[in-house]
Amino acid sequence: MISVNNINKYFEDNCVLKDVSFVFEPGKTNLIIGESGSGKTTLLKVMIGLYEADSGVVRYNERNFTEMNFLQQKKLRKEIGMLFQGGALFDYMNVERNIMFPLDMFSEKSEEENLDRVNFCLKRVNLENTNSLLPSELSGGMKKRVAIARAIALNPKYLLCDEPNSGLDPKTAILIDNLIQEITQEYNITTIVNSHDMNSVMEIGDKIAFIYEGKVWWKGSKEDLMISDNQELNDFVFASELFKRLRRRL
Amino acid sequence: MYTILKTIGQYFLMLRRVFSLPERRAIFLKQIVLEIEKIGLNSLGIVIIISLFVGAVVTIQTAFNLFNPLLPRYLVGLATRDSLILEFSPTLLCLILAGKVGSNIASEIGSMRVTEQIDALEIMGVNSANFLILPKIIAAMFFFPFLVIISMGIGMFGGWLGTMSVDVTTADFLYGLKYGFNPFYITYALTKTIVFAFIITSVSSFYGYYTKGGALEVGFSSTKAVVYSSVVVLIFNFILTQLLLA
């Protein structure tokens, strides 16, 4: 479980996160949704310590992350898998070396055992026999799947995904969403997904926080979302003609 | 003034993170070998070409300037040798390497920053500054002295080729190369080289590491890396020459 309490974050005079509090539960796909520039990525970066919050507390299973020193944070980060918007694969390493990297750095196992783990992770994301390909030879969806494989290589307790299906076609986006949900349930991981893709929300949103102007404006499940009368949420979720029609039918 | 002090402070804070114990010695050593290839071996071609032609040109220019029957012809060899050892090979070559290696380092690390690869390293619990920058610094400090020694040798060979177009015999030129040789000059040149190698790699890494934005900013960082590392090299060239030779 990850909890954030009363998080405030300023960039100079601009308040990006205002008193944000939320609990992200294990075994569920927790979604942070909101418009571009609403503060979703900033919240995610505060949660992993890439940005320092001006006030507030981030807890990982009751461990206060905000009070930890650099080395303690570094130790805890080994329990976190992160999937970046662009994949953030290391350009000069092939697929195998990319997934092997965290194992090489932190696992005490032999090279052969690590290679078995790499192949297992690749199989899990349906990318067998791509070991020798370079990131530049992969499609957008494949890059995301390799990034997922790398993120789960060390069996993380927490999986953080920043817009995992941005730039992907709807079919591949759903594949990625389903993969994230399966992995979450299979390993009982606390997963947080940043998204502004409504298909993702409807597909995998077990628990949702809607961020609006830096505040948690609304929280609930995907079922609650369909019948909510929150104006800002409805303007965001039912922005497209398709979703408007869907809403009218409900 | 505030910005300059802030940048210098940020540079030393980065160095503090760079000079920490690596996570895995085996991976770290592998990184150093890779960097020696990228930074050092891949610069060998340009070092050879530049040194060969500069050596030849220095000889020809010196020969024309020392066109006096009272001056012995071996002075051409002596002047070529001292120009190469004292200034061209350690300083001018390092300025050229600041352009080649510095821009390469800044754009490589800058691209990693804007594509979130450095964030990915941090989240994995890897000290990204140490992992990315320290191998480059060590590789350059280890290999640049070899490049400079090679440059000295090739430059002198180029100088000998240059004697073919002026009125200096091979015997005179070789006598001049050996005449009154002070071995401390080599120590001085290599000391400068090691300091310059540190400056070029650390300053360029600094500008790459703190790149913000996108591809355009990576280009700006690369330019800044070359300009500032060259300026710092020139300043330290003056300081080291004062300390070691004056």
Detailed description of the structure:
The complex is a heterodimer of chains A (250) and B (246). Chain A is of the alpha/beta class and 250 residues long. In chain A, strands 6-7-8-3-9-10 form a six-stranded mixed beta sheet, with helices on both faces. Chain A is globular. Chain B is 83% helix and 0% strand. In chain B, helix 4 packs across helix 7. The mean pLDDT of chain B is 93. Chains A and B meet through helix 2 and helix 3 of A and helix 5 of B.
List its traits.
heterodimer; A: 250 residues; alpha/beta; six-stranded mixed sheet; four-stranded antiparallel sheet; globular; B: 246 residues; mainly alpha; 9 helices; 0% strand
Brief summary:
Chain A is α/β, with parallel strands linked by helices and 250 residues long.
Strand line-up in the sheet with most strands of chain A: 6-7-8-3-9-10
Q: N-to-C terminal Cα separation of chain A, in Å?
A: 33 Å
- Average pLDDT reading of chain A: 89
For the largest beta-sheet of chain A, the strand count, sense and barrel status come to: 6 strands, mixed
User: What's the total count of β strands of chain B?
Assistant: 0
Task: List low-confidence stretches of chain B.
Answer: none
Rounded Rg of chain B:
21 Å
Element-level helix/strand string of chain A: EEEHEEHEHHHEHEHEEHHH
Largest two-chain interface: A-B, 20 and 16 residues
Share of residues in helices of chain A? 40-55%
In DSSP terms, counting alpha (H) and pi (I) runs of 4 or more, how many helices of chain A? Answer: 10
Oligomer: heterodimer
